[in-house]
Amino acid sequence: MRAVRREHNDAVGAGRRAIALLGAVLLAAGACAPATSGPGPAARGGTLVFAIWQEPTTLAPIYANQTVATVVNETAVEGLLNTDTNGAFYPVLAKSVPTIDNGGVKISADGKKMDVTYDLLSGVKWSDGTPFTSADVKFTWETYLKDPKVVTTEGYSQIDSVDTPSDTQVVLHYKTIYGAYLTRFTGIIPRQLLQNVPDISKSEYNQKPLGTGPFKVTEFVSADHITVERNPNYRKPDRPLLDKIVFRSVPSREVAVAQLKAGEVDGMWNLLEAQIPDLEKDANIKIVTTPSPSVERIELNLAKPADPIADPKVPHPILGDLNVRRALLLATPKQQIIDKLLFGKAKPGTSPVSQGWASPKGLAQEAYDPAKAKQLLDQAGWAPGSDGIRSKGGVKASLTIVTTTGDKVREQVQQILADEWKAIGIDLQIKNQPSAVLLSGSYSAGDPRKKGNIDLWMYASSPAIDPHSIINQRYTTANIPTAANGGAGQNYTRFSNAEVDRLVADAGATVDQARRAKDYADALKILNDNVPIIWMYDRQLLDAFRTNVSGYKGNTWDNITWTAEDWSIRK
Amino acid sequence: MGHYVVRRLIQAIPLLLGITVVAFAILKATPGGPLAAYEANPNVTPEDIARLEHALGLDQPIPLQYASWLGHFLTGDWGYSFATSQPVLSMVGGRLPNTLWLMTTVYVVTLLIALPIGILTAVKQYSWFDHLTTGATFAAFSMPTFWLGLLLIITFGLQFRLLPLGGMLAPGAPFTVGDLARHLVLPVATLSLVGVGTYVRFLRASMLETTNQDYMRTARAKGLTEPRVVVRHALKNAAIPFVTVAALDLPELFGGALVTEQIFGWPGMGRLFYDSVTRYDYPVLMGILAISATFVVLANLLADVLYGYLDPRIRYS
Asked: Is the separation of the CB atoms in A211 and A127 below 8 Å?
């Protein structure tokens, strides 16, 4: 099952910062760990301890809204399909991936509806020994529609009805053409166990979901550990290799790193780029580096900042000028920031979709060229004053940037930008806010991006394998938060372009992947030409193991645990 | 005496109610909310948010939400966590033993060390021992626990590899007292050192106040041995301010140590509170706040009752 990725995960939690100091000290001190055994042949059996620095609140696929929940539960819960690291879907509980070409997807005669047929593996059992059938798939759909606590009904409410012609075949009748149909049913839930449960969220299933995967969840001790053990009913007789994985809850990334170095844990989830150089020095640790769809960016408010909410029709007095936006981009030394602050472990950003089939090839942003930036500003009539800061028509080019407080790398980036932009005559003030405020994504909670009461803001966000929802939410006119729509939508920059709106709508109404990819590429080209966003760098997925662990593999579109059945450990 | 206790308990009811009102209002006034994390998920639509708000009762007016919480709480129904859907009572119940393990050990160790040192440092005022203790205790209670904890982790966990870096039990291993004890050493040392510093300072100051009292001279004049003078006369009188401090620390046995539990990954109440704050998990926070407030009130009452035992001149009316 796929990770639920969102910018929230990239933000450092408020309290974790309180003990961020711990990180630096522990990292330094851990360097004196004694050497242990080197790599060995894959062995069967054994227990692996894996550190997670966030705790899942639930492991049920229907409720999970945290990446860490999928890190743990995908060892036990399976879906119909999954995504490999190249972004290609492969069958898990299904026999094949339904497409138009193989007849799995049938578009109605009027072109407005579609049916998707999944043929399921036969003989699959839930870990309690009961058979997995098409009725479970139907029950999963029904639960998404009727349980008021599911995380989203997106992609399920678009289905009108579900037929189960046989135990191994399920037909989904969609009300519309739903392009992202392959991304749903990533966690099937057991009908036999849950059909008579009045509130699944309050049942044992919430923390110990029954699945068909290589492991089964046997223990969930809050703030301490979650144990998954070999599923005796798993369909592959030679998997999993491990007997047990203990997911240990630790309070922060830094603690996880220290415990990894000390050998108290055998692997850990989700490092930061800045932690790499130190870990690389440790011969007992191997870092798994995987390209991630997460893109660090600086977004520019095209509307005049206002409280309680900006009016998209009133342009920003400074950033409303394309020349200023281009100048800021030209004066942003992406490569220098990557080399100095991220130890070269990232690539300069070019678009919001950095990975997968929808990633536009050859799309770029203008490269660092401060001389050209000055020239643009001169031509546009932004004249330097006595203090070197430019102004035009009585408006001084002074901007404020916001990012998440306590994030060291982001704070350093801000310092560099303040210097660089000052050199071209633009003043940059820094005023950071806690991630819970800046990235809340909630208008009522006062997310300044939703309100549009700030100039510039820096954070990271990643699209799902199907980028439609994020492109639609972030860059189309209908999704600009306004007073009229009560702050709904995530088009924080207030970017509005009729051609982009048309292209994105077109992409959403077809299952033709080539056409969709071209629509997105064209739309993102127009977006980049207008520079509402500076794509800073493409981030990486970073996990680490001790060298006596083998069999793991990174996946751009999934968590490191996607191949946990192949993991083995030599003690 | 019985009347006094009953009256104090009755007086505590409006106080506790007031505390829960203020706590609820503050929680609701903080920016963000339990659904903020969902809103940041691009797959979640505004309709999903509205549905979840309704499912959690967040679409109700705030006074009504409070009344509903209070009504259930009073009947013993602490509600369900917004984040985990688990009953708050069982979440608290799961953490309370862990915190009791930690904090009771800390409390006992702190008292066992602080009492003799505090008495001795006062009895031997201006001796080298007193100077040394004064210096050391000042350093100890000025030390932030997060820093001290780290120092101990680095030294004994990473450098010398003597003790585990965190957690309460070795991951995946069955429960043994020895394993628990090993994990207890560093967090207990961290909290006790700071606690000992505070207690010794208090005890020394109040012991010194008694040394010039007339009854001390009388006791010595009666021919009592010095240890008897110190324990029966000096210590008993000096104990009143000390008991206040010690009794007021009692609620920590249940509330846990927020920072230390966080640093050592101790699965206790402090960490539950911290995690619930980051998740805006109002039902859990309200449950913890209500019970903490109750313990504070009870500890105050206990301190007052103990005064009467220690000083018969104090009368309750």
From this structure: yes
Between positions 148 and 187 of B, the ones with CB within 8 A of A are 150, 153-154, 157-159, 161, 164-169, 171-172
> For A327-351, b where at least 16 C-beta lie within 10 A, e where not — what string?
bbbbbbbbeebbeebbeebbbbbbb
CA distance B262 to chain A (A): 6
* Amino acid type, A569: I
> pLDDT by residue for chain B (317 residues), tens digit each?
778 888 888 888 999 999 999 999 998 887 777 887 777 676 777 788 888 888 888 888 889 999 999 999 888 889 999 988 899 999 999 999 999 999 999 999 999 999 999 888 888 888 899 899 989 988 888 888 888 888 998 899 888 888 888 888 888 778 889 999 999 999 999 999 988 988 898 888 888 888 778 888 888 888 888 888 888 888 888 888 888 888 888 888 887 788 889 889 899 999 999 989 888 899 999 999 998 899 888 888 888 888 777 777 777 66
Which DSSP string do the residues of A127-167 spell out, in sequence order? TTSPBP-HHHHHHHHHHHHH-TT-S--TTTTTEEEEEEEET
Cite the DSSP H helix spans in A357-497: 370-379, 408-423, 435-438, 448-451, 468-475
In this structure, the dihedral spanned by the alpha carbons of residues A489, A491, A495 and A499, taken in order and rounded to 10 degrees, is -70
Structure tokens at B16: 């506790």
- Chain B, residues 36-55, CB within 8 A of chain A, namely 36-48, 51-52, 54-55
CA neighbor of B96 nearest in space, from A222, A208, A206, A202: A222
Instruction: Report chain A residues whose CB lies below 8 A from the CB of B47.
Output: 153
Q: What is the 8-class DSSP label of residue B143? A: S
Residue A131 tokens read as: 């058979």
Contact status of B29 with chain A (Cβ, < 8 Å): no
Range list of H helices, B30-127: 36-39, 46-56, 62-74, 88-123
Question: Can you say how many angstroms the Cα of residue A427 is from the centroid of all Cα atoms in its chain?
Answer: 32
Residue of B30, B84, B96, B264 to mutate, interface with A, max A Cβ within 10 Å: B84
CB contact under 8 A, A206 and B84: yes
**Facing residue for A262 by CB, picked from B48, B165, B172:** B165
For B108-113, which contacts have Cβ atoms below 8 Å and span 24 or more sequence positions? B109/B188, B109/B192, B110/B191, B110/B192, B110/B195, B110/B196, B110/B199, B111/B199, B111/B246, B113/B192, B113/B196
| Phi, psi for A39 (deg, rounded to 5) | -70, 150
Alpha carbon distance A40, A558 (integer Å): 27
Q: A223 phi and psi, to 5 degrees? A: 65, 10
Q: How far apart are CA A515 and CA A497, in angstroms?
A: 20
pTM confidence score: 0.84
Q: How many CB atoms lie within 10 A of CB A10?
A: 22
Which letter does DSSP use for residue A319 in this model?
A: T
Nearest CB to A8; choose among B40, B165, B268? B40
Answer positive or negative: Cα dihedral of B68, B70, B76, B81: positive
Give yes or no for B256 touching A (CB within 8 A).
no
In tens, the pLDDT along A138-191 reads 999 999 999 999 988 988 999 999 999 999 999 999 999 888 899 899 999 999
Closest CA to A125 of A216, A233, A231: A233
Enter the DSSP assignment of A364: -
- How many C-beta atoms lie closer than 10 Å to residue B223's C-beta? 7
CB contact under 8 A, A148 and B47: no
Its ipTM equals: 0.86
**Is the CB of residue A348 less than 8 Å from the CB of residue A329?**
no
CA distance B174 to chain A (A): 12
Nearest CA in chain B to A225: B171
Q: Which of A32, A14, A3 is nearest to A294 (CA)?
A: A3
